[in-house]
């Protein structure tokens, strides 16, 4: 199959267009087949037995016959995994049924009773819920750290620390982490590092190049890109791949072929979509930032790492090569009624939680779950997911929302 080796030195859009599938393996069809199946047949008893022996070592993908059972992968899921390995520079990728499963499966793979895990406090809330409920119930000690901690993460290491979990930028407020400093500290102690890299995608940040062991994606967002699929992807370096893959096999949390097909189709256009998301988002973020300077404006801080005014901007500039289409702004000294008035006045922005699709969305941000990094942002926070619509129309919609919020004050 075509993979990283073949397309590795080419431009990113060329890679996205060609990686992950070998048309001549399927009679020349440009796209891989969507293989629906549970059962794979063997030609004879000897091959069946040989395959069973190979399956005892679940890390091995070089089987006596390439496919043995649907939970181990199919031509459709392999095509997507190959494409993602080429983007991430990873030794292997697993597909799981949701972005949240892409968080929980690697945590389950590397944590046992009595272990200690460090998780960034600005993490996606369902990650925290999983840690505080299931990991705690399993006897894992869960500790949250400040996103700005950098190399000082080492001061929190204990003898039983097994995993450092990062998410950069943080959910909803977009704090950037010094990933290389943190992974260097963890490596000295043999601690596994993971990052939820959904915001950046492997186009704007390549975790494994910055020392991270495991890169996590909600493929639901930009890889899928069309708000019609839920899927997660986890990519691992050579050191962690075996344990990740064995856990996936043990749990049976495999990805479905239709979903894999949709995500691979989404990847083909992810580069150009992200260029457009970034361009419109930066324009809107700068426009809101300018508005914040006007006397009497109800717009407060604009939280977007690509803005020079953003506290983590320098780190973002050093490590990332782009910013996606999701950011937040503060309704200065605002009330919940004003935030609701903003949301209810919008005509184009849909009220919805996901992001990464073609359409603009809005949510009123809730931050009360945070513990060590809890702070007052000076008002109510609104998160905008900027879709592929025209900038002028989105501005008009936001203006409508701001007028309503002002009137409700
Ligand atoms: C940062 C981040 N990670 C993971 C997820 C989970 O993705 P999914 O909705 O596919 O479970 C989300 C969803 O919003 C997210 O924002």
Task: Give a nutshell description of this structure.
The chain has 409 residues and is an alpha/beta fold. Helices cover 39% and strands 15% of the residues. The protein is built from 13 helices and twelve strands.
Description:
By secondary structure, the protein is α/β, with parallel strands linked by helices. 39% of the residues lie in helices and 15% in strands. The chain contains 13 helices and 12 strands. It has a 7-stranded mixed β-sheet, sandwiched between helices. Helix 5 runs parallel beside helix 6. It is globular. It starts with a helix and ends with a helix. Bound molecules: pyridoxal-5'-phosphate (PLP). Pyridoxal-5'-phosphate (PLP) binds next to helix 5.
Secondary structure layout:
Layout (H helix, E strand, L loop, with lengths): L3 H4 L4 H7 L26 H12 L18 H14 L3 E5 L2 H12 L5 E5 L4 H13 L3 E5 L15 E7 L11 H10 L3 E5 L4 H4 L9 E5 L13 E5 L1 H14 L5 H36 L6 E5 L9 H7 L6 E7 L3 H10 L4 E2 L9 E4 L14 E7 L5 H17 L2
Parallel strand pairs: 2-3, 2-4, 4-5, 5-6, 10-11
Antiparallel strand pairs: 1-7, 6-7, 8-9, 9-12, 11-12
Helix pairs in contact: 2-10, 4-10, 5-6, 5-9, 12-13
The structure holds pyridoxal-5'-phosphate.
